[in-house]
């Protein structure tokens, strides 16, 4: 049976995050020919609706309010519940982002439905859809079916391919007025840390450093390689604990979970807690001077050598390829 599916489009600093398009792609599979409605929250964000149509949304429900300019669990849950109340969807899809992880359990519990979180792929369509999600820190995968309505799913960024964009596709934008009240917190402003641009959780390429990098300055070649490849810099907890870099870069069980197309692990031993955050990357390259390092067990390509010799050579090769 075809289904109506509501997707929450995630916007940040005036731009939609890729995961919004991946969520629409997931919603299309779940809808099995039904309607995919993108919920778009914020202030002065109506201009973003066109991209949602181009990537497959059939309709957009726009909720604009000053209190939706920045995410708060109270504000966004009121807006999403209002959209669900109006649309009565059979399914809801969010990105498994910091926002989605915070919002989804709150809304699912209000709707008294189950939550299938951190989905990395979907097999089948409509009523036959089965959701694949990692368990035991990525050491195994389980296949889950929905047992309650509405079906509520969060999808891990970088795992489900967005649909091919249909340039110029448009659709109907319905405006829904929601009275956002009783906020326990109001975000006045967000002061971002200076970063090198690419968001770690959505990066297609990550160059990640461990304790083997030895110092803050040791991260410079990793940053250079990441810039050349249009990627982001990550780190092991070992490197963060040693104060070579900020904890916001930490990847692993207690850091960020990432699935880039290419993960280059530099001077990282491959402790189980680190693997929990990156072992599902599509291609893993490890550079380590210890041939017995655990990281080589998950690596597709391994370079046994001193990173301070290997990194400059790698950077020169990439520069030559780009020239
Ligand atoms: P090390 O284990 O010290 O490894 C350094 C590596 O660099 C070695 O393999 C060495 O051979 C190599 N090396 C050294 N010099 C060179 C050189 N010149 N050239 C090439 N290679 C070189 N860790 C995480 O990363 N993420 C987490 O989220 C996380 N969560 C944790 C949660 C808990 C509850 C616990 C207990 C631990 C957690 N850890 C986490 C820590 C984890 O167990 C490891 O201690 C940590 O990952 C080690 O970091 P590392 O590989 O950078 O350092």
Automatic annotation (TrEMBL):
Occurrences of domain Electron transfer flavoprotein alpha/beta-subunit N-terminal (ranges): 5-195
InterPro entries for the chain: DHS-like_NAD/FAD-binding_dom, ETF_a/b_N, ETF_a/FixB, ETF_alpha_N, ETF_asu_C, ETF_asu_C_CS, Rossmann-like_a/b/a_fold
Keyword Flavoprotein included in the entry's annotation: yes
Transmembrane segments: none
Entry keyword set: Electron transport, FAD, Flavoprotein, Transport
Record Pfam families: ETF (PF01012), ETF_alpha (PF00766)
Name of the protein in its database record: Electron transfer flavoprotein subunit alpha/FixB family protein
């Amino acid at each position: 049976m075809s289904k109506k599916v509501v997707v929450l489009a995630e916007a940040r600093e005036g731009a939609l995050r890729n995961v919004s398009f991946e969520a629409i792609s997931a919603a299309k599979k779940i809808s099995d020919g039904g309607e995919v409605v993108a919920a778009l929250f914020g202030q002065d964000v109506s201009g973003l609706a066109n991209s949602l149509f181009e990537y497959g949304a059939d309709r957009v429900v726009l909720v604009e309010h000053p209190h939706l300019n920045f995410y708060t669990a109270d504000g966004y849950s009121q807006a999403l519940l209002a959209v669900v109340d109006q649309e009565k969807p059979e399914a809801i899809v969010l990105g498994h982002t910091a926002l989605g992880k915070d919002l989804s359990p709150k809304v699912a519990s209000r709707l008294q439905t189950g939550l299938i979180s951190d989905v990395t792929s979907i097999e089948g369509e409509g009523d036959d859809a089965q959701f694949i999600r990692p368990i035991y820190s990525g050491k195994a995968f389980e296949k889950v079916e929905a047992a309650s309505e509405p079906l509520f799913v969060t999808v891990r960024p970088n795992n489900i391919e967005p649909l091919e964009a249909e340039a110029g596709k448009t659709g109907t934008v319905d405006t829904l007025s929601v009275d956002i009240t009783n906020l326990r917190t109001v975000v006045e402003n967000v002061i971002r840390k200076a970063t090198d641009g690419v968001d770690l959780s959505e990066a297609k390429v990550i160059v990640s450093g461990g304790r083997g990098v030895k110092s803050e300055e040791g991260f410079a070649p990793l940053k250079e390689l990441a810039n050349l490849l249009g990627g982001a810099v990550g780190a092991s907890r070992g490197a963060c604990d040693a104060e070579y870099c900020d904890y916001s870069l930490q990847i692993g069980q207690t850091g960020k979970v990432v699935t880039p197309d290419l993960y280059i692990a530099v001077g990282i031993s491959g402790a189980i807690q680190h693997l929990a955050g990156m072992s599902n990357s599509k291609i893993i390259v490890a550079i380590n001077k210890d041939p017995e390092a655990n990281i080589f067990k998950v690596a597709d390509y391994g370079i046994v050598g001193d990173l301070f010799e290997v990194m400059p050579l790698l950077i020169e090769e990439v520069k030559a390829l780009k020239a």
